[in-house]
Amino acid sequence: MHASIPVVPEAAATSRHRYPDGWFALAYGRDVKRGALIVTRFMGEDVVLYRTASGLIRAVAPHCPHLGAHLGHGGVVRGEEIVCPFHHLAFAPDGTCVRAGRDGKPPAATLRQRHVLEWNGLVLAWQDRAGAPPSWSLPELDLDGYSRPRGACHTLNGSLQNPAENGVDVNHFSPVHGWSNPVLEPPQADGYRMTMRSTLVLLGQRLLLDITMHGLGCMAARMELPDLGLHARVVLFPTQIEPDRWTCREFVALRVERASAWPSPLRRAVHEILVSAAYRLWFVPQFKRDLRIWDHRDYDARPTLMAGEMPIMTFRRWAAQFYPAAGDDVPVGQCDAVPAAAAAHAGREFAR
What we know:
CATH class of the largest domain: Alpha Beta
């Protein structure tokens, strides 16, 4: 029988009502068409995402700097410019106002922007409480030989820290997922990265689970059933949209070792069939079990842990670095950094 361990709350653990720094997903790239714009919530405010005719993606403040019209309600994308619905001020991809609707003479106005990139079919924005540019980047994701990724977006109550904390919460694997004999290596923190490695038993097969957190907004996992030659890449993108509301976008791709030597068309066809079945029949039901718990959970800053659960506090201490200290909060609306040249678009599209 496990003894309960009362834990003194970490000072920054109560920062769930503030917003963390880092890279966070705003949308799937497939949802932002050329010449179109969408409005999404991000850390307590609207962000307008748009794609120019040439394919550049931009994330901008919602209100025109002229007289405050909301660009997401009546604004349009014309060529490489986003145009305000109120006085037809047009803004170039770098945020500068290049013309006005009536006489064509642009005012000295600049549309505030966020650093934004496209990464493997996701659109991510950089958040920094001080308005600083990105201090780290996401690594390349090796998907050679994998299927096209599947993905969906979920909106939940609570904290975006839920998915990452699950990675070190070995005691949930059996009651929630039916996976047995979990063994967790001590989590390793390295600046904005944390790695979590576990071995489990799934349906009598050895399961290797290797998770790397890139900040709090990207959780990249490798799942392997080595005796069966099955490999999965599962990437979760949690994003806080309100103090107690968050989204979780998923990315699931599969590789079968035995198919690696097959002709490419046959391998792709087999992967599509297998990943479709595995996604619908295994991943979705398993993930729904987590989602149900997260959506109704009180992510308490004062947990009473059982023996073997101290890695949860190791994770929470690491996570605290991404939040402002108490009293150091600044307005989140810091869409003021002009983005660098648009990153090359990832070649992979999400299957619907």
